[in-house]
Amino acid sequence: MRRRSGFTLKELLIVVATIMLLVGIMLPSLSNVKRIAQRTQCMANIRQLQYSFQAYTNMNYGKAMGTVVSGCEFWAPAMTPFSSKTDLTQRLLLSVYCPAATTPSNGVGTASLAWGPNYTYNDIYCSTPHKLPLGKQSGSYGINGWLFNNNREPGVAVECGSVDMNGTPCTVEGDVISLGAVSLKGHANITGTLYTPPGTSVSLNGGNTVTQVAQPGLSLPDVRSIYNNLLPSALTPTGNTIDFTKGGYYVVPGSANLNNYNYVGNGTILSPGNVSVPSKNLTLNIVALGSVDGNDIDGSVYCVGDYSNQGAGGTVTGIVVTMGTFHQGGHGDIKGGPPPAFDTYTGMRGFLSPVQPLVLGNPARVPVFGDAIWPEAWPNANDQMKTSLQKTGDITSQLGRFNIDRHNGAINIVFLDGHGEVVRLGELRNLTWSLTNGP
Known about the structure:
The chain is an alpha/beta fold. The protein folds into two domains: about 180 residues, no CATH class; about 190 residues, no CATH class.
């Protein structure tokens, strides 16, 4: 009698059917495990964003970034003072993506797509196309816009340690933020508002008038950090020629007289020492670790030391930021144009005045970040939320920007006290989005 050498067809079919049955039973479980893993990683991501947001506001004395912080970069880069080359920053930029929505849609996001461009980006915020790393122009999360003022501080022209103006005449055409004593003499004028810490000495001699506001918690952009962040990408001049068409930043050695150089195009000069601009009208920005003695500059000036302009002309079309004293004499004016893109601190910040009462109330119900189809939203409890659009979201509804079915009928949200929750879509309007737009 011969022994069988293999399975019969019937036995083989039974084994295959059994395997297929087991696979059919396991597939939903495996799919569910994947969704749980994505939701867990997503929660870790937005908690990391919340930690960075809190660190940013603490470092900036209770001021938060806006949604667009530097040219066409969104909020993620503003929340880290580190170089873009560090692993920590790269992790932060990658954490702006939910694992369930990692591919940018090249526009408004959906439940399964991130918002933002998937290649170069060019709109009103960018004069030329920019190709930036992922996380700087796109993401899967939105910030609660009620937590900050998304408008530029109105007309800031000078930010300084103290003010000494004695002009015949000289004018600052905008607001002034001064951390120390202010002295206006002769025909010196400030057309905007003077912001100083409470109790600051303000001396007016010569019939000057100024609108002063005592504002606690004022601070200045850190010029040293700006310098250090720009230095790695700065070129050095060839002879006495600075060609900005080859690079937007140049570092000049030691203390420098910028009139000694010939310029091609426009850009920013870095100096580890003092800078002087005796006469030539220059179109550039200056970032110096020393003092700046300026004249006509079509651009902005940033210095750790004093800024001084005692010339007969001396107009700065941008802003002046000095961690020392702002000395302005002669007939010079500060026009207060928009800040350069490298100054994310002045460019987009706002006092977090609504946050303090919210913190004193119930910060555990105030959302900061959540799964969204757009980088920001200002939700109102009366906003419409269409259930038919939960896969795509509704960009026309502020609350609808968060109303997406990303995690099985829910989204992840991290709150002002730092904890995160999986929030069912039907509960979104019950959260305290702001003092006047919550339950």
